[in-house]
């Protein structure tokens, strides 16, 4: 990720009022995680799996603070159980920002399943999402995801791909 | 040791705390053992989510004491949260694990702790939660509640309880969605904040 894209993500998160980020680090967002750790306005919580991160974000929602779950899109699969229970069972929203592994341009065989499963899993959970491939759209995508999550009290997701992550 | 009796002891110590609660029969038991905490308790049906949610709440409200009422099945479902608590060291989180060594709500098949080899408190200590204990008597449990509710590091007590349910107790009628609204409005009122505010237009 270019420094300018990292800054756009952090700008979007701050504009959306995010003060806590849960993450499990991945390679496409490699430069983003230390920048989040270093930001004085954001508390980062590194988790052992993304489902745990989703549940922590749900708890943060209940506190009145705003959280985001940042991860590779494979983490979506690890998060399905808590997302289904919190979102569909109780109306507790989680906003997710994920790197899009397995999109066109992918050059790792192991990442192909992530691309095949991401959108069908999001659709199965009826989670509104956008895929962004241009840096100048990042900030708006993040603030829009929070607007809808806090109107619907349901999850939303932003997947970043293309020139943003490669 | 009966879970309901432990809950009664814990409830007597609670006032301004917020509680995240696990699934199964413990929901109705807590509803009856702690009637003064009903709006301050989030009754959820989420195996593996309870302590992570409680930790998220504790992170968002660092000046409020948060209590997680988890279970052996729920904690075993997501042991990673213990490592996260070990690293993050929240100052305001007290975790109770009701360990009845079975999946009681589906008829009682054994959990991993029934073997006698799996020790959740020892796992927690190994994960960096220094104050993690097992309680086998009511007085032991009560002493851990007293210590855990004023600790400034994460505190876990695994309560070894019978696989029985308190008979003839009132059932809770609300679902997870109604429970969330009740809980959120309680947090808003007691913290003086808005969590679920009005739309742009009516």
What percent of residues of chain A are in strands? 15-25%
Mean pLDDT of chain A: 97
What is the terminal-to-terminal distance of chain B?
Answer: 53 Å
Oligomer: heterodimer
CATH C-level name of chain B: Alpha Beta
Count every helix of chain B, treating DSSP H or I runs of 4 or more residues as helices. 8
Looking across the biggest beta sheet of chain A, what order are the strands in?
2-1-3-4-6-5
Overall mean pLDDT of chain B stands at 95
- Strand segment count of chain B: 6
Order of secondary-structure elements of chain B = HEHEHEHHEHEHEH
Sheet-strand content of chain B, in percent, reads 15-25%
Q: What would you say the CATH architecture of chain B is?
A: 3-Layer(aba) Sandwich
The CATH homologous superfamily of chain B is named: Thiamin diphosphate (ThDP)-binding fold, Pyr/PP domains
**Gap from first CA to last CA of chain A:** 6 Å
Q: Globular, elongated, flat, extended or rod-shaped: what is the shape of chain A?
A: globular
Extract low-pLDDT stretches of chain B: none
Q: How many structural domains can be distinguished in the coordinates of chain B?
A: 1
Gyration radius from CA atoms of chain B, angstroms: 16 Å
Please describe the biggest sheet of chain A, giving its number of strands, its sense, and whether it closes into a barrel: 6 strands, parallel
Approximate shape of chain B: globular
